[in-house]
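Researcher: Let's try something more involved. This one mixes different molecule types, so please make sure each is placed in the same coordinate frame as the others.
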Amino acid sequence: MSEMKPGRSFVSAQQVAELAGVSRSAVSRTFTDGASVSETTRKKVLEAAEQLGYHVNHLARSLIHEDSGIVCLIGADINTPYHSRLLDAITRRLQAINRVAMVINTSGDSDSVEAALRQTLNYRANATIVLSGTPPASLINTCINSGQHVILINRDDHLDGPESITVDNGVAAREAFHMLHRAGCRRIAVVSSQAGTPSLVARERGFEEAAREAGLAVTITRAGPTGYGAGFEAGRLLLSGSERPDAAFCVTDLLACGFMDAARVEFGMNVPTDLCVVGFDDIEQAGWASYQLTTFRQPIAQIAEHITTLLDSDNPDVVNGPGAASGSRVCFHAAPVWRRTVRPK
Amino acid sequence: MSEMKPGRSFVSAQQVAELAGVSRSAVSRTFTDGASVSETTRKKVLEAAEQLGYHVNHLARSLIHEDSGIVCLIGADINTPYHSRLLDAITRRLQAINRVAMVINTSGDSDSVEAALRQTLNYRANATIVLSGTPPASLINTCINSGQHVILINRDDHLDGPESITVDNGVAAREAFHMLHRAGCRRIAVVSSQAGTPSLVARERGFEEAAREAGLAVTITRAGPTGYGAGFEAGRLLLSGSERPDAAFCVTDLLACGFMDAARVEFGMNVPTDLCVVGFDDIEQAGWASYQLTTFRQPIAQIAEHITTLLDSDNPDVVNGPGAASGSRVCFHAAPVWRRTVRPK
DNA sequence: CAGTGGGTTGCACATTTGTGCAACGCTTGC
DNA sequence: GCAAGCGTTGCACAAATGTGCAACCCACTG
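Model: All components are placed in one shared frame. Result:
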């Protein structure tokens, strides 16, 4: 079956119409939900379409409807456990509401976020979801004025315009401090990275603040990019000094894994006996038997679901203030996940 | 600047033309490389475009050229270390040659691969890259007949038609056996999963074959889906028996990590003193200090690069055999990465 | 001064699809 | 038997863009 000529090109509705002996309109209506077609022509069309391998051209369809069905995901470091899980969750949910994800990887150049936004506009995406990087405000406005949703995830830059989904990093970080403090830790190190991402900074600040309120000073170590290597290096630096810390708050689970490994392998320390550790994100490795890391869970499923509700909502552009149509903001809670790297009280 | 009316819709070339006081053709030519426009009108157009926030509609452009610039990546379990790294590498390389990746997540339903292929056709993608799952042959043919590239990665199903990129799984698995055999191991377990992916099966077979040639029998354990949990479970099962293995070949690094953790945490064993382990993929975690896993490196960079050469090549459809225009096949070598989980001879 | 040539420009048509409108045919009711 | 009504069909136009062709203008040359 499916005898096809080697046309080397996509099949158009015109060709299907000719083979089926109907007008092109009939073909179009056959593939349009709720259109008026008789059962007989519908059958003829479907048969011809199957035989030729016809598939509706969504690009052309998008010219008419203001709906390409494309959603752009802009992010860097997508090979990271946290980002890849987010990507997985979001793409799945998008497909469930009949959207398709276009992924733009902005690792490398710092101005590639701008290029990514341009792609978003070029492909008439319904929405742009920014996972990392800070796009220029003027381009964001262009996107919004073009009718796109612009959704910033975990970037609480105080831009108004785009919709934003965040996690209560500061609150969770404060809680992290109290967990360690209650466990008896007094010389607490904060392990962060040189990335300076808004959410990482918020975690540093929250922890620092809670420590200050308790009368403790903390030192922040930033030994490279956010990852295992920087955590390991930070461990080497901090633990080789004369006054070893008795606990560490790592603003990322990856940093925590690296830090723990340095402590155990390089210094023969035991966690949590000699050293307590708290991480952030709850990546898969945090649950592995070698780490059993106490951490805070990123509400990835909730984030992904909220995105779909933002996109599904039938135009909630009720208020259209002339200057700033401030987008909605949602903040989810990062709950602690107790495992084994913090001593019980 | 950038005073924009709240048009709530994308800007068209027509609007730019009116503002600039030129014809729409002039606008089109301004954004077409190599077209004939005078410097003065070009400037007028660019200025008007900037002011209105105009961006060329690639969807409409694709109607004319047979080139959407879209490449579909079809895959499941994209939150896995191996897959996310592959995704990262491929998306980057695609962007470098001015393509954009559309990611279709096929986790869940088994027939969603078919739906994914349909999306590929709907969006007139230039190419379809299949990372997992086995698409129906008839749809593959439709894609090829439509002029798409179809590239199968690490799925050496013996379909002819699509182009395929594989890794010499069997050869590497044989080498894995000899590494363990040379280290003095004789009771070797193979840890695999219930997935039954072609590459996993090839690794099992290669190892089994080499073992048989050396006069050893191996047992294959499949304790669940390919991942840390199944490796851990396999470890529990295998090591609680009376005759403990003295080595394990895990067909995936994730399985190996789980297996090692079970051995150490549940049975207090030491690697490599009591037990040698060899993995596959060389995921990031394999290099972590807690594992230091000896494994085989997937040539991800080479795979990604080869994809771009396949897409960049200006129509190498030299031979167009009437029936089966067999696509090119490339097989890369997976080189061993020596770390610490195999005893030195 | 007229003719030629080259660079620009605009018109019109092409790409593929959805849809309003009018016409068509068939059935049903009087 | 005829008219009304309803479902179906095709024509023509819409969407945003690229491009061949002819016309245009300007400068240069004989």
